[in-house]
Amino acid sequence: MELNFYVLFIAAFIPMLIGFVWYGPIFGKPWMKEMGFTKESLEGTNMVKILVLSYIFSLLVAFFLQFIVIHQMGLFQTLINEPDFQEEKGEAFTYFKSFIGMYGDRFRTFGHGVIHGVMTGVVLILPILSIIAMFEKRTVKYVAINAGYWVVTLAIMGGIICQWL
Fold this sequence. Notes:
The chain is an all-alpha fold. It has helices spanning 6-11, 14-26, 28-35, 39-42, 47-69, 72-79, 91-103, 110-135, 140-164. The longest helix is centred in the C-terminal third of the chain and has 26 residues, at 110-135.
């Protein structure tokens, strides 16, 4: 299974690009209100540090997302520790190459990745943010803005990773 891991580095930019629009012109004012921020309170923020760390964390998200959106990764994970597999020989590797040759392109579309990205946002991120929000006494609007961002972001990341990785 030939994978282009550079796609993960590209996909890791998606959260920042979506965030620029989502927390800017689209939901910037309501989000700031929900957070209790003002333009003045945000002054002096080290944006270089935030953007660098955000990219690193986004790269971790992209790395994890590949296992969700690419079904063939399950077979790879199942066989990787079989004898001689990592040396690209042996029965397990032969089976793997045959399987990938026949089915390696199944469900490898942008749309399929979007579906899994949305599902990850709704079934994993939304509950996590909701639990945190309840303990922090945040509003439904706070959850909707942030969970919506992650659903859209993971959908686009998932599509890119599934189609081009």
